[in-house]
Amino acid sequence: MRLRTAPVALATLVTAVAAATVAPLAGVAAAGDGGLPHGRHDVAPRKPVVAMGPVARPLAEKPATCELRTGSAFPLDTKVQGGPEEYVPGGGSEEWSLDLTNTSDRTCDGIHPVLVLVDRDRTLNNAQLRMEFDDPVTGRSHPVPFIKTDEDEHIGVFDDGFPGFVIGAGRTVTVRVRLGFTADTVPGPVTATAAIVQRRGGDGQWVGESGEYRFDVVDEGDLLHELDTELAATGAGGALTGLGAGAAVLLVAGGALLMGARRLRAR
């Protein structure tokens, strides 16, 4: 089930993520684990399903949230920038950025991105994920722990005691992110989506979302994948050249096998 078809689940997710800590989510997600073009960042997102009731507060105690701009679903425009198309298990972290643009007329504070990862084969587990983000104000790095839902979605909250980003009206904050996978991660396609939450004490408001960022976890030295990537990058002419080189290799190898077979028959 997707949140775009379940608005109630969407609202409860926003409230749950915006709570004081990640701990409340542990009750609804296990602590352990049990063909579109890659690299696209502007596809309709796949959002997680987390069933949790909202934390009620008297309306008089709730500070004002970011205002929506006219004709926009959210006050924060959110984009994943510079994300690589491939990650090598055990090969270190890759850096990319998350741009948060405030389109409202007031400052948005207490902003916490929430990254959702979904792998196609559902083999990924939380222990295989390595992620951290930088506070652009202090320069300090913060780890991002993940939890897993019963929908096999891995949710990482930009928290770690972090008070949240402050984004002035009409301003953009760029958050540097590093993501990596341990050596035992099974190769395969993964989709990442960022939801943005404004935390207001024990409550919260969903104020932004990114498009999907799709990439592959690929074993280093995967010859077939490297050939496929090279052919795709070189275009039609390069593809013909690549096919010609491949055919030459096969002919040479076939000739060697044929010569060996003849020598065996002669003996």
Please provide a written account of the structure:
The chain has 267 residues and is α+β, with helices and mostly antiparallel strands. It is 21% helix and 32% strand. The protein contains two helices and 14 strands. Strands 1, 2, 3, 4, 5, 6, 7, 8, 9, 10, 11, 12, 13 and 14 form a 14-stranded mixed β-sheet that branches. A hairpin with a 2-residue loop joins strand 12 (188-200) and strand 13 (203-209). The longest helix is centred in the last third of the chain and has 44 residues, at 223-266. The protein is elongated.
Number of strands: 14
**Overall mean confidence score, pLDDT:** 72
Into which percent range does the helicity of residues fall? 10-25%
The gyration radius over C-alpha positions equals 23 Å
Brief rundown of the structure:
21% of the residues lie in helices and 32% in strands. It has two helices and 14 strands.
Question: What are the defining features of this structure?
Answer:
267 residues; alpha+beta; 32% strand
SSE blueprint:
Elements: H1 7-17, E1 29-30, E2 76-81, E3 86-87, E4 94-102, E5 108-119, E6 129-134, E7 141-143, E8 146-149, E9 154-157, E10 165-167, E11 172-181, E12 188-200, E13 203-209, E14 213-217, H2 223-266
Parallel strand pairs: 2-13, 3-14
Antiparallel strand pairs: 1-8, 2-4, 4-11, 5-9, 5-10, 5-12, 6-7, 6-11, 8-9, 12-13, 12-14
